[in-house]
Amino acid sequence: MILPIVAYGDPVLRKVGIEIDANYPGLEELISNMKETMYNASGVGLAAPQIGKAIRLFVIDASPFAEDEDLSDKDRAVLKDFNKVFINAEIVNEEGDEWAFNEGCLSIPDILEDVFRQPKITIEYQDEDFNKHTEVLDGLAARVFQHEYDHIEGILFTDKLSTLKKRIIKKKLENISKGKIKADYRMRFPNLKKKK
């Protein structure tokens, strides 16, 4: 089932997600719905807060990036198979010089900005069967993970922008929170007053 994606301004996007266990109600269906919602919106990642649930869960399928001819063969090979469910994820270590990359977010449509992130991370997480994993990610795979991880920490990519950039996009963000935007997918807006 395709779920509405929560728009910028909704308080759930600012909550730090709580850990879940295998007894979380309807988890398998939730993961399936999140993947369907992500694909419907042409996204490469979707975190539970973006569908209104403040839990430590996100899904990633970065395979569309594998078709980018500007990337190295190594990066394309990694991204082609980077399709995973992350539960109770943690970043254990970040290293390297920060680099900029143009990011967007399904909760913040039509805004793309350069965000600086470190290129190499060590992560721990559980998969959908609650098996524990420790992995090292770098390049674009690390960046996609960091973006989704921020969501379960209550952080948005716009928080990482300079004061000037934030001022420039302030009106656009206000319009998104008021539903004054057209998206190619279902959205839920926080500041739409119900008419009596």
UniProtKB/TrEMBL annotation:
Class of the enzyme per the UniProt entry, highest EC level: hydrolase
Q: Which reaction does it catalyse?
A: N-terminal N-formyl-L-methionyl-[peptide] + H2O = N-terminal L-methionyl-[peptide] + formate
Write the record's keywords in alphabetical order, separated by commas: Hydrolase, Iron, Metal-binding, Protein biosynthesis
Q: Which Gene3D superfamilies match?
A: Peptide deformylase
Annotated active site? E148
One of the record's GO molecular function terms: peptide deformylase activity
Give binding positions for Fe cation: C105, H147, H151
Picking any one GO biological process from the record gives:
translation
Against Pfam families, the record matches this protein to: Pep_deformylase
How is the cofactor bound, as the UniProt entry phrases it? Binds 1 Fe(2+) ion.
Cofactor(s) for this protein?
Fe(2+)
Q: By its UniProt entry, which InterPro entries does this protein fall under?
A: Peptide_deformylase, Peptide_deformylase_sf
Q: What is its EC number?
A: 3.5.1.88
Write down the superkingdom of origin.
Answer: Bacteria
Which NCBIfam families does the record cross-reference, listed alphabetically? pept_deformyl, PRK00150.1-3
Q: Which HAMAP family match?
A: Pep_deformylase
Q: What role is this protein assigned?
A: Removes the formyl group from the N-terminal Met of newly synthesized proteins. Requires at least a dipeptide for an efficient rate of reaction. N-terminal L-methionine is a prerequisite for activity but the enzyme has broad specificity at other positions.
The similarity comment for this entry is: Belongs to the polypeptide deformylase family.
Record protein name field:
Peptide deformylase
